[in-house]
Amino acid sequence: MLIKKSEIKRLSADIRRIIDGQTVDLRDNREGVWEILKNDIHTLANIKNEQVDSLERERDVMAETLANISHQLKTPLTSVTVMADLLENALAADATDKQTEFITNIKIGLTRMEWLVSALMKMAKLDAGAIKFSMMNIQADELAGLALEPLRILLDLKNQSVKISCDTGLFCDKKWTAEALSNIIKNASEYSPDGGEIRVESGMNPICKWISVTDGGKGIANNEIANLFKRFEGSRSDKGYGIGLPLALAIMQGQNGDIEVDGGGNGNGAAFTLKFFK
After folding, report:
1. Backbone φ, ψ for residue 272 (5° rounding)
2. Which contiguous run of DSSP H or E holds residue 171?
3. 185 CB contacts (<8 Å, ≥6 apart)?
4. Residue among 271, 124, 257 nearest 180 (CA)
5. Does residue 171 contact residue 198 with C-beta atoms inside 8 Å?
6. Which of 116-120, 133-137, 261-265 has the lowest mean pLDDT?
7. Least packed by Cβ within 10 Å: which of 41, 67, 120, 220?
8. Within this chain, do residues 113 and 153 fall inside the same structural domain, yes or no?
9. From CA 235, how far away is CA 224, in angstroms rounded?
10. What is the pLDDT of residues 136-191, one digit of tens each?
11. Does the predicted TM-score (pTM) go above 0.70?
12. Residues 241-269: what's their mean pLDDT?
């Protein structure tokens, strides 16, 4: 059986269109081996499309379920937080030192629990592929400013400063990348001394654009770096959950990026670099 080169080229082009997600009808009612091959490819493409559609539906259901779970968890947490505030106000001047200590510990625990629930929900959405990143151009200094907003109180309590030296244009999802950077800066704050300085810098090279965070701590031992991004294991602090850094990495990898760690040491703090590949 002789098959024209033009027919092979046409079939090849149609297959490439199918790979790109386009709908192509390859069915051929004529008899012959070539026609059977085209019909089989058409059937295979339909099976692939149905599987993709099914996965997308499952992803949407998962996203909705996670949103409902998040809501159900946040509602009682918010109620308990409000009650803790009311209890604090009710006791006011009459509270003993021990009562004040208990209420403070309750509020700290609730704040940490709320952050953990939020982080776990975000991680679950990323794992389920339920996040659609909205890529846009943004300056690194603007991104750093957004990342710092939720950390102002933490930094003030530790009297820490953040030196921003960023003038690089980045292409990323503004909201989610700010979340990742915020987690990296929070980690830097935890391992920097009170009154210390955290440096945020940016730049570019032939491979990627980047934004880095360097803490004022003593550095990280090389044998500890491999565990930093393992969930519930990588925290170097007794107060940490081991979820902030894995969440940051998941966000970067979801945008085809990565995070590189320089352990520092010898008087230099550890540096975490968020990479945006070109």
Report:
1. -110, 120
2. strand 169-173
3. 147, 148, 151, 162, 198, 200, 213
4. 257
5. no
6. 116-120
7. 67
8. no
9. 10
10. 999 999 999 999 998 988 899 899 999 999 999 999 999 999 999 999 999 999 88
11. no
12. 89
To the nearest 10 degrees (0 to 180), the angle between helices 33-91 and 5-19 is: 10
C-alpha distances in Å from residue 150, one per residue of 182, 186, 202:
8, 10, 21
Closest to 150 in 3D by CA, of 193, 121, 184: 184
* Beta bridge pairs of residue 273: 212, 260
Strand partners, 209: 204, 276
The length of the chain, given as a count of residues: 278
Cβ contact 172:207 at 8 Å:
no
Count the neighbouring beta carbons within 10 Å of the beta carbon of residue 122: 19
Copy the structure tokens of residue 152: 């102002």
At residue 107, what is the residue type?
K
Between β-strands 161-165 and 197-204, what pairing exists: parallel, antiparallel or unpaired?
Answer: parallel
Range of the domain at 272: 136-277
Residues 33 and 102 in one domain: yes
pLDDT at 66 over 70: no
Question: Rounded to whole angstroms, how far apart are CA atoms 46 and 33?
Answer: 20
Same domain for 155 and 272: yes
Same domain, yes or no: 1 and 39: yes
Block residue for tokens 């690089």: 168
CA angle 152, 154, 160 (to 5 degrees): 80
**Residue 180, amino acid:** A
CA atoms of 154 and 61, how far apart (whole Å):
36
